Amino acid sequence: MNHMTQTAYAQPAAPVRTARAVEYDVIARITQRLAAAIRGRKDNHPAFVAALSENEQLWSTLGADVALPDNSLPQTLRARLFYLYRFTFEHSRKVLAGAASPEVLVEINTAVLRGLRGDGGAGA
Which UniProt keywords apply (predicted)? Predict the structure, then answer.
């Protein structure tokens, strides 16, 4: 057996990740960037606007997904997530206009992360 073959077979296989785990990681990453951008918004407004936009894109994707007829989530959960999509969209507009605080967007994402993790009402 040559060295490359031995090396290839010696590598542990990449762990299989569930869709839920991937979703969690994406939301966590966007939430961390948003929280950091909120803290630094006075010094780097463009990064703050970019983080808000990325969060809106996330929620737009989630909203579209839960609106699909073949989405397997329970109807009440789908409705709640769609409501959060609409709220996030509207609230982000208010934040950009200087009429609302952005911290609630991080709180929403954090609550969703707790749900994905299975913590329900437990702290983050």
Answer: Cell projection, Cilium, Flagellum
Q: For residue 2, is it within any domain?
A: no
List, as one string, the DSSP characters of 4-60. Answer: HHHHHHHSPPPPP--HHHHHHHHHHHHHHHHHHHHHTTTT-HHHHHHHHHHHHHHHH
Enumerate long-range contacts of 91-99, CB under 8 Å, 24 or more apart.
Answer: 92/52, 92/55, 92/56, 95/52, 96/49, 96/52
Average pLDDT of the chain, as a whole number: 89
- Better pLDDT: 6 or 50: 50
Place of tokens 């769609």: 82
Question: Does residue 122 sit within a domain?
Answer: no
Q: Which carries the bigger pLDDT value, residue 117 or residue 38?
A: 38
Residue 5 lies in a domain: no
